[in-house]
Batch of 2 targets.
Target 1
Amino acid sequence: MRKYLAEFLGTFILVFVGTGSVVYSAATTPSPITIALAFGLALIGAIYAFAHISGAHFNPAVSLSMAIQKRLSWLEFVGYVIAQLLGALVASLAVYGGVSAYLKSSTVTQALSGQKMTVQQFVDIAGLGQTNFSNGQAVTAFLFEFVLTFLFVLIISIVTKLANVPAPLVIGLILAAFIIVALPITGGAFNPARALSPVIFVKGNALGHVWVYVVADLLGGALAAFAANYFNKDVNTAA
């Protein structure tokens, strides 16, 4: 149970901080760097806190890869994914709940010039930090998510096997870098739980596109498992 709770909390931290950085900067001009760093730093902190308990996956694509590599049992995989999805869902609900207070902040009231806006009106316009792509760009979005998720999970699978490597820092920083690259194309999910949870509340166009993230990210994680088995041969593993 401790493992599943760790996965729930870690995924909550990642999604709440990451998508919250998007939502609560909507009245100003969101910076790709600050958004990417929010996700990356949240992931670094969560890994340091929970890696010794669950391995700190916080991502169904990572858990799938670890199960294929036999670093996680398939029974644990199911529990991990359920915990991750619940953590992401609660995080999006928490971000949604914070919109009411955000609308009362001086930043928003100045941007609206005193006009009133309901929480649902704000979410309809600004969203909840969901990932999405332009209509007609499904193939491009799929390839971006697939390739970058593959590379992301492969890096995770390799650095977590190496001794004397600050794996949390490497993983968090590479996530931030990949998000900066993918943000204008797909929003940079690389994580089915992160992609799914906000669209449950915003629906619309993003909900119709979410399958791209789920399929591409899981396939990228699965392929990374086989590549990791090849690259991790005869390496000195971490203690």
Note: The first helix runs from residue 2 to 23.
Target 2
Amino acid sequence: MSSATDKNPAPAVQHTDAEWREKLTPEEFAVLREAGTERPFVGEYTDTKTDGVYECRACGAELFRSTEKFESHCGWPSFFDPADSDAVILNEDTSLGMRRVEVICKNCHSHLGHVFEGEGYPTPTDQRYCINSISLVLKPAE
């Protein structure tokens, strides 16, 4: 995966590509392990308002909570902060001729999406964690 660099600690959950391919669907593998992006406005959680916790689809680590999710109308689920500031790793991403900040799961180094700042959303952090639905599993609150 493009984001596993020397500056990041080794992930707690590690599998070979073959093992990841057994665990994930081809679409999940393309996003989570190959840093792909799902099409906008098609993801399962884009407009979800269910209370709960969003976990990494690859390893089950808690990443985001519904209390930090907001409507950004960008086509992907958006959060203004991770559930735990140590839950994700932020890496510079210069692919596609742009400078962005990639968001990966700290636990397994799977690609989740990107984070953007200074877009003027009325959130406490002025950040938009733009996350692929396919990277997440929502565990509804009981």
Note: Confidence is low (pLDDT under 50) at residues 1-6.
